[in-house]
Design a protein that fits this description.
- The protein is of the alpha/beta class.
- Strands 18-17-14-19-20-21 form a six-stranded mixed beta sheet, with helices on both faces.
- About 3% of the residues have low confidence.
- This is DUF58 domain-containing protein.
Length: 430
């Protein structure tokens, strides 16, 4: 490009010399004519962008916040070299470094790598490729755009993965490596042993005791192959932002940790996303394929600014889940939507299934509660106190219906939900 710039400067200098040597009016016309000729010649000599051929390769998925690369191959079947600038345009949320200097000799091809670092979940689709081919003098250029489709799916980041090892260690203690002395509808008989002080008398096996010299008790272990149904409420309440992300993103992170943990426990995990219609469903996946299916199903989901149809959501769960299961509903604890939506149909769900309601709390509320610096801070504290009291009342009402509630800030919700699942396992309620 430096050579091109020098040629252009030499051409302009020559035109000025011609203008100075001729009378004023004639000189101006001469300079204009010379410049027009130079621009026309430069435009003719610039490589054509229309016959260029493009192809893509590279990453098709990436976790939110991580880098990825997409390679664009430019082939020039024309008779002149194409040199200039190329813009590989992507949506702003793709975080693309999309401008490239390009030089493709005739009959050859060049590979250009566009680096992306997405800032939002979902499918990020390439817009178009625009090439500006500059002439040898640098005075004129040809420009054209081409559609070169490519999509990168931005997956949930799964930050809560860091909590998995500690929860798996606790799961191993419940899963037969050390016997658990519990009894309930969600347990399987493990073995017999002698009675010790503190054992539940209901676990005494009287037939085995009659045959032995000591009192014998049954030991139980958590039952495997249970059914866990994760239900994401994608309605209006999920759109509220907590920090830099909507509540839905924090709910997804908690759902992913619980799904992987339950899968490792031998349970079957399904996912439903619902507002006024079914937005996504994952059924029948297990093992390593489960996480892949879940993140791909979650990636394109965005909150809908509508009130969730709780009756339709519960009906969808009951239709898809015949036997007794653990249903985990990730939604808000706002009183009004629950009063009008979930509570009227809650009994039909709790009669057949164990239910956990998990909600994302806003840490800003706790900060506002402590504010007393000025009049505005006092009003903020009063509003935060009212919000906290309403959530507590909703939690107590859900508890009276036998519903477990997990209410925590985004960073604490995933491990808290996993701990509640393990507690249900240990108590024999799963």
């Amino acid at each position: 490009m430096a050579v091109t710039g020098r040629l252009g400067l030499l051409a302009l200098f020559g035109a000025l010399v011609v203008g100075l040597l001729l009378p004023s009016t004639t000189g101006i016309l001469a300079v204009g004519g010379v410049l027009l000729l130079l621009v026309a010649a430069d435009l003719v000599l610039a490589g054509s962008v229309r016959p260029l051929r493009f192809s893509r390769s590279g990453d098709t998925s990436v976790r939110l916040g991580e880098p990825c690369e997409v390679t664009l191959v430019v082939a020039n079947p024309g008779g002149r070299a194409v040199r200039g600038l190329l813009r590989d345009a992507w949506p702003p949320s793709a975080g693309a470094d999309d401008r490239h200097a390009v030089r493709v000799p005739p009959g050859e091809r060049r590979a250009l790598v566009t680096a992306l670092r997405p800032t939002r979940r979902g499918d990020r689709t390439a817009a178009r490729v625009t090439v500006r081919s500059v002439g040898p003098l640098g005075l004129a250029a040809r420009q054209g755009s081409h559609e070169v489709p490519w999509t990168v799916r931005v997956l949930p980041p799964f930050h809560s993965r860091k909590h998995l090892p500690s929860r798996l260690a606790r799961l191993q203690q419940l899963d037969g490596r050390s016997a658990v002395l519990i009894r309930g509808q969600g347990t399987e008989f493990d073995s017999l042993r002698e009675y010790v002080i503190g054992d539940d008398v209901r676990s005494i096996d009287w037939r085995a005791t009659a045959r032995a010299a000591d009192v014998m008790v049954r030991t139980w272990r958590p039952e495997r192959d249970r059914h866990v149904v994760l239900v994401l409420d994608t309605g209006r309440v999920s759109a509220g932002r907590v920090g830099d992300a909507p509540r839905l993103d924090a709910a997804m992170d908690a759902a992913l940790l619980l799904a992987v943990l339950a899968s490792r426990a031998g349970d079957r995990v399904d996912l439903l996303a619902y507002d006024r219609r079914l937005r996504a469903a994952v059924q029948g996946s297990s093992g390593a394929a489960l996480l892949t299916s879940l993140v791909n199903a979650m990636a394109p989901i965005e909150p809908s600014l509508v009130e969730t149809d709780a009756r339709g959501m519960v009906a969808e769960v009951l239709q898809r889940t015949r036997r007794r299961s653990l249903v985990v509903l990730l939604t808000g604890l706002d009183a009004a939507p629950l009063e009008e939506g979930l509570f009227p149909v809650l009994s039909s769900l709790t009669a057949r299934h164990e239910l956990i309601v998990a909600s994302v709390a806003d840490p800003r509320v706790a900060e506002m509660l402590a504010g007393r610096g000025d009049a505005e801070a006092v009003y903020d504290a009063a509003a935060a106190s009212r919000t906290t009291a309403e959530r507590q009342r909703v939690t107590e009402r859900l508890a009276r219906h036998g519903v477990s509630v997990v209410d925590a800030v985004p960073e604490e919700l995933p491990p808290a939900l996993a701990d509640r699942y393990l507690a249900l396992k240990a108590a024999g309620r799963l």
